[in-house]
């Protein structure tokens, strides 16, 4: 099992459950999470979804060891939904999505906040968009959603620098609604999720639809641009150097790569 699911008071809690891998998304976890979001969307007993992680991480993003396999093995068997299917499920999810960042969030563990209706963060958690340090491009419409959330310059720093963002900084720039102590994070996020869940689902979905419908076309266009850039860069010299360095436990060195 890579995803824990629990229902209580019309809130479905989804807990990413690969703690030994810092909840990094492999194909199995992408599939399980995408499938669970689709099922929650269709379940009349679920009003709100609360997404969090098990252990000391929220999510370390895409599993880089599996990413290396995908980049180098043409026979690698992909999952049913994969990364694209998960982002489809997030973009299409019609009910309130509450995210509780309990620990480190890298890559999709950070960019998922662009699809969150409410986000909460442990004071000990940190966020990072590591795309430039991996020699790739942004993902999950983050090139569109993050500037809308935090402004152009703050988003540029997050996406270009590949530096860590503290919980206090995430709240200051508007990535998260509230920072909580680790012991209070889930109680706070669940309390607000249950407040929403007491409202009629028809009204919740109407409010969310009126807020998100104007963005759907721009999100789709941003994803298309990002996917094209990502495909062009994945498996390229900078990306392979980053993945090789990760496997060898060292910092990547892009300075010796022509054009990098």
TrEMBL record:
Keywords: Isomerase, Peroxisome. SUPFAM superfamilies: ClpP/crotonase (SSF52096). It comes from the Bacteria. The keyword Isomerase applies. InterPro entries: ClpP/crotonase-like_dom_sf, ECH/Chromodomain_protein, Enoyl-CoA_hydra/iso. GO terms for molecular function: delta(3)-delta(2)-enoyl-CoA isomerase activity. Its main location: other. CDD domains: crotonase-like (cd06558). It holds the Pfam family ECH_1. It is found in: Peroxisome. The keyword Isomerase applies. This is Enoyl-CoA hydratase/isomerase family protein.
